[in-house]
Amino acid sequence: MLKIKTPKTHRGKRVLEKRAPKLVENEKKTLILHGTKTSNVLNSLLTEIYHLKKENSVKYTRRNDNIRPFEAGGETNLEFFSQKTDCALFVFGSHSKKRPDNLVIGRFYDHHVYDLVEVGVENFRSLQSFSYDKKVAPKMGTKPLIAFVGEGFESVDELKHLKEVLIDLLRGEVIENLNLAGVDRCYICTAVSPKKVFLSHCALKLKKSGTIVPRMELVEVGPSMDLVLRRHRLPNEGLRKEAMKTAPDHTKKKLKNVKGDPLLGKTGKVYIPDQKLGEMALPNKAKGVKRERREARNNKDPNKQASKKPKGEGST
What is the pTM of this model? Predict the structure, then answer.
């Protein structure tokens, strides 16, 4: 295995920070490998998968004798390559008399094999075998659409697992907003039977429809193939729970004394402190305050008011 080293340069430190776990992970890279023996079909298929995912894939052309994903101890080299290249997916092609044109697709978790799906490739057609207008050819790095046709993807366990793996392999970068002008290709997966899936790659051609939303036409650009299910291995329940953990969302602050009601909607409580009106200072003095004070003083001493002479009377 690789030796763990501390970074000695700023560039090495940036590489380790890029590979460190994040709340929002980067796009998954794909590792493409060859087995001890491969056929011309597999060589062409692995090359075209690399071209479709060129920005986020690593391809090794050497033969690997010791990689056997479904056998105990045969996945050590796979985990070594995953740690070396920081890849979360792998595609492994091998050819034998028992399993001709064999393709193994798997995922890693913490640089260890998470799950595996083994399929056989039949009726393969490469990119060069399709003739179409090159103007509608998909561009590199665009976001593809993925369509799964058939009830088997919801009812058959093997097809459910294959669907999860194909979504991770083909979807590209996870985004929040999508520009319609940038949608130029689509992967169509059709469940022909519980053990067979037809996969095709089409370009989207936008045409006028008389409305704001254009009309789309599919133009098959390849590659296309039939995938025959052979073996698959699911992760154990403990590993699945650990891989599905998500960080708590601390962005939203909890509002105190606020609750939701199905009839009233959002309701809340407002607490008002005791108001001591006697101690409150008046903003200004009213004109009637002096008169009130004089009347209050006269009520306390009535004799003083009577001793005063009425205005306008003379002395006797």
Answer: 0.73
